[in-house]
Amino acid sequence: MMLFNQFSGVLVYLVVSIGLLAVILSRIAPEKRRGGLLVGAAILLFGGLFIFQPEQSGVTAVTAQQTLAASNGRPVLLELYSDY
To answer: Is the sign of the CA dihedral 34, 35, 41, 42 positive or negative?
Structure first.
């Protein structure tokens, strides 16, 4: 089993960001922690959204893929995969 895989980035992001949020919240006055927690959670969610957003592939339309596969009458190996 590999030590790092496709889920390692998510786990490291969560551990580091929750630890940082805990340190910041420990320095805030108790009556302001609820607002700080909401703002921190929103920042974590939007940060994760932008960091782990999948990239757009070059060929998305079915007709474009068929055109590429039928070029010059030669066999083509078409490999489709997902990063997740």
So the answer is: positive
- Residue 84: per-residue pLDDT: 63
Helix, coil or strand: residue 55: coil
Q: Which two tokens stand for residue 38?
A: 């909401």
Residue with tokens 């895989």: 5
Is the pTM of the predicted complex or chain greater than 0.70? Answer: no
User: How far is the C-alpha of 68 from the C-alpha of 59, rounded, in Å?
Assistant: 9
Q: Among residues 13, 7, 6, which one has the least CA distance to residue 48?
A: 13
**Alpha helices for 1-84 (secondary structure H):** 8-26, 33-51, 62-69
Q: What is the average pLDDT score of the chain?
A: 75
- Residue in 39, 55, 50, 38 with CA at minimum distance from that of residue 13: 50
Task: State percent of the chain over pLDDT 90.
Answer: 0
Write out the two tokens for 77: 């190996």
